[in-house]
Write a structure and sequence with these properties.
Layout lengths: L19 H16 L12 H6 L9 H23 L13 E2 L5 E3 L12 E3 L11 E2 L2 H24 L3 E8 L7 E8 L5 H9 L1 E2 L2 H4 L5 E6 L2 H4 L4 H9 L5 E5 L4 E5 L4 H18 L3 E13 L5 E9 L6 H6 L7 H6 L8 E6 L2 E15 L2 E11 L4 E3 L10 H8 L10 E3 L3 E2 L4 E2 L10 E4 L1 H7 L5 H5 L17 E8 L8 E4 L1 H10 L1 E3 L11 E3 L12 H17 L2 E8 L2 E2 L13 E2 L2 H12 L3 E6 L4 E8 L5 E4 L1 H4 L1 H4 L2 H17 L31 H12 L8 H7 L8 H14 L7 H4 L6
Parallel strand pairs: 2-17, 3-4, 3-9, 6-8, 8-10, 12-21, 21-25
Antiparallel strand pairs: 1-2, 5-6, 5-7, 9-10, 11-12, 11-13, 11-14, 14-15, 16-20, 17-20, 18-19, 22-25, 22-29, 23-24, 26-27, 28-29, 29-30
Helix pairs in contact: 1-4, 12-13, 15-16
Length: 756
């Protein structure tokens, strides 16, 4: 395994000096939260009925109060329309009141923010290498919050002694035996009951013997902390001056995620998950933002295979589609190939967000078809239900998901739970077609979804009756793993590519996406997010190293793996920043789903594309090898652009991916200098155009702490890493020669290169 990266003293990867008085108060806060309420206290794991009893439900309010809220709602609607017209998401969908739906479920509306805020998340660095882009909790902030934590701790001591005010929920993250985490949520106040209500829906019940033990993970939430804590005005002013009135504070080594000033459930859902992700990473595993499902499908050769589908990607880019909407009966693919419905086939959805890759305490040896293999890793989902985006959901186009959310007229879903979804006040029904905040959410019942898909028995068939339901992959019954990625590009990336393990990991490092509303930013604008995860704790570089070690270990054990990337954006645009142009075509969802099923049936025809350096899907074939779908003329950028134009666009894309456009551009993956050199093929990297690009290239192969912009700076810091191999140095020399830069710098020789 790749060793965990630990910063040297004085390294740019190290955190600030820890302030002793702050550490003392932090330890006290953690101890109080771990102790929790006394057994039997009203606020200690109250029932769902009790949570509902604390809610401010619109229909139960006096008429005058209802009219005031409706007037406020009208103003919010006006402001939302103005924001949407300007290409921005609205800050609120409705006033701070709960609406009871016609199903008997409930709709909530965030008041303190409608998206997760990585920009307001700060990390207490305690011995591990810090994130390159995350915000570190400074020594100055520690000094300030030593005072704040004193007030929080006094408040906690008082309320835990009296058994009130703080709503405690003990749950379990994941359901894999021996690979799950006991998580405890402590919510101050009863104003935002959607937080524990939805979080409980998204997690698993903790067995009594687990719930009585100290938790592995703590989430402490104070939505109105500036008002609720008896802090002096001087302290409040210093907090406002420091811009710290809203803060997600994470102390991963202590298992703590502290939320100050937030009510959006997505933020509270991610808090415990991010700590679980850190814990897994510390034992040489990895957590990734991915959808997870098990597919049992028959190939065109007649062989039934159980496939674990791990689909990595950012929110709203298609990973849910490939998990929830994939069908193996009556699909467009089945119609084209005249496939008969087979009751032995199906897709069992497991997870839609965070997947844990955890080393098994004891490797498992299996024998299948006369072949011996050894299994070293578990592949585990984390959530009991799906925290899904329902925008555009309607019965006509997607009856399975619609009825999983709402139920049917005969069987309404009385546990329907919505967040930031507009509601029709005449019928008390949700309006999934209006999405003012661009981030409406729903708790999508996994059990209802599985039942509605007719997949109740799929896991039982896969495991020969050993398991009937769950969110962890039955790895000993799995024939193959498909590592998939979803991305949105607009120009030269085809709908589907087949990759090497190294290429796949680089795709995750590129993290190319388009702003769709699940995070702050202008809708439709491209951005990059390493591994599609803005909440990585610790050095991002380690994610690539760990995943590479994991897939290689799985490969050594004998479990078959393949690697793919879907483009769910489009092709043929004038430029990658805008989905426009005479040749532009949006890749339809139906094509993506057809290609996914074709992969499972071994029906995709691939051809080598030299400029991309990978296999690209050119068609779909039937059992005789005859092409029934041809992708070439309509969907392959090689045939959309002229040869010269296509080649130039590929080069430009590659240059952006490795070097970025500037020192500040997160797109350039050479900035991740602690990634194993073997993950990059030097022949894939464009020749540097200037000193900054050359220095980034050398910084990577010297494995120094960061990508430096000048050769002199790199020379001064080269002791942070070590010299590249002789073969790598020769290739770097050749690239420098081709660059024609001719830099008269004495540092060249010191870095192993000869001046031209």
């Amino acid at each position: 395994m790749s060793p965990q990266i630990r910063p040297k003293p004085g390294s740019s990867l190290a955190g600030p000096t820890n302030v002793s008085v702050f550490v003392k108060e932090l330890d006290r806060l953690v101890a109080l939260a771990r102790k929790g309420h006394k057994p039997g206290a009203t606020f200690n794991n109250p029932s769902q009925e009790w949570l509902i009893s604390q809610m401010n439900v619109l229909q139960d309010l006096p008429e005058g109060e209802q009219q005031g809220l409706l007037s406020e709602a009208s103003q919010i609607d006006k402001e939302a329309a103005e924001a949407n017209a300007a290409g921005r998401a609205a800050g609120r969908a409705w006033p701070g009141v709960v609406v009871r739906l016609d199903t008997g479920g409930y709709a909530f509306f965030s008041q303190l923010g409608v998206v997760r805020r990585p920009d307001l998340t700060q990390y207490f660095i305690d011995g591990f290498a810090k994130n390159r882009d995350g915000v570190v909790f400074s020594s100055e902030s520690q000094t300030l919050f030593a005072e704040v934590f004193g007030y929080i701790n006094s408040y906690m001591e008082e309320k835990l002694a009296s058994g009130d005010t703080i709503v405690q929920s003990d749950r379990q993250v994941g359901d894999a035996p021996g690979r799950s985490f006991h998580a405890r949520q402590m919510l101050f106040g009863t104003r935002y009951m959607q937080i524990p209500m939805m979080w409980r829906q998204l997690t698993f019940p903790a067995p009594d013997e687990i719930a009585k033990q100290e938790p592995d993970i703590l989430e402490v939430s104070l939505p109105h902390w500036m008002e609720d804590l008896a802090m002096p005005e001087d302290l409040k002013k210093r907090l406002r001056d420091a811009g710290l009135t809203q803060l997600v504070f994470k102390a991963p080594t202590l298992g703590l995620s502290l939320h100050l000033g937030f009510d959006y459930v997505g933020e509270h859902k991610m808090g415990p998950l991010s700590i679980a992700m850190y814990k897994v990473k510390e034992v040489d595993g990895l957590a990734i933002q991915a959808a997870l499902s098990m597919a049992r499908a028959k190939t065109l050769a007649g062989e039934t295979k159980n496939t674990a589908l791990i689909t990595v990607g950012p929110s709203l880019h298609g990973k849910s589609t490939l998990t929830i909407m994939l069908e193996l009966a009556n699909s467009e693919f089945a119609k084209k190939l005249n496939l008969k419905t087979d009751a032995d086939e199906g897709v069992y959805p497991m997870n839609d967000d965070i997947v844990l890759l955890q080393p098994l305490k004891d490797p498992v040896k299996v024998s299948k078809g006369g072949k011996q293999s050894t299994l070293y890793y578990g592949i585990d989902g984390t959530e009991n239900n799906l925290y899904a985006m329902p925008f555009g959901l309607n019965h006509a186009e997607d009856p399975i998901t619609f009825e999983s959310v709402r139920g049917t007229q005969q069987d309404p879903n009385s546990e329907e739970t919505l967040e930031n979804v507009p509601v029709d006040l005449d019928s008390w029904t949700p309006n999934f077609l209006s999405n003012p905040v661009r981030n409406m959410r729903v708790t999508l019942s996994r059990t209802r979804l599985v039942a509605r898909k007719g997949a109740n028995d799929i896991l039982e068939k896969i495991t020969n009756g050993r398991e009937t339901e769950g969110v962890h992959v039955p790895i000993e019954d799995t024939d193959q793993v498909f590592w998939q990625a979803v991305m949105r590009q607009n120009t030269v990336v085809p709908p589907l590519r087949r990759l090497s393990a190294e290429q796949y990991i680089r795709i995750l490092m590129y993290g190319e996406a388009v702003q769709m509303g699940a995070a702050i930013g202008v809708i439709g604008r491209p951005y990059v997010e390493y591994f599609s995860d803005p909440f990585i704790i610790g050095l991002e570089d380690q994610n690539a190293n760990n995943l590479y070690a994991i897939v290689k270990k799985i490969e050594d054990g004998g479990l078959h793996q393949q690697y793919f990337v879907f483009n769910t954006g489009g092709v043929g645009a004038d430029n990658n920043d805008e989905a426009i142009g005479a040749k532009y075509k949006k890749i339809p969802r139906e094509l993506t789903l057809m290609l996914q099923e074709a992969l499972l049936r071994d029906a995709v025809k691939f051809e080598w594309e030299p400029l991309l350096g990978s296999d690209i899907a050119v068609g779909i074939v039937d059992e005789s090898g005859k092409e029934v779908v041809d992708l070439r003329s309509e969907w392959l950028p090689t045939n959309i652009y002229s040869a010269d134009d296509y080649s130039q666009r590929i080069t430009e894309l590659s240059r952006r991916r490795f070097y970025g456009e500037s020192s500040e551009d997160k797109a350039g993956i050479l900035r991740y200098t602690k990634v194993l050199n073997g993950l990059y093929d030097l022949t894939d990297i464009p020749v540097p155009n200037n000193e900054r690009e050359l220095t980034w290239l050398l910084s990577f192969y010297w494995n120094v702490d960061q990508a430096y912009d000048t050769l002199a700076d790199l020379d001064a810091h080269k002791t942070e890493g070590s010299a590249p191999s002789a073969a790598e140095t020769q290739t770097l020399q050749d690239m420098y020669g081709k660059s024609g830069l001719g830099l008269p710098c004495a540092a060249l020789a010191s870095l192993g290169l000869k001046a031209s």
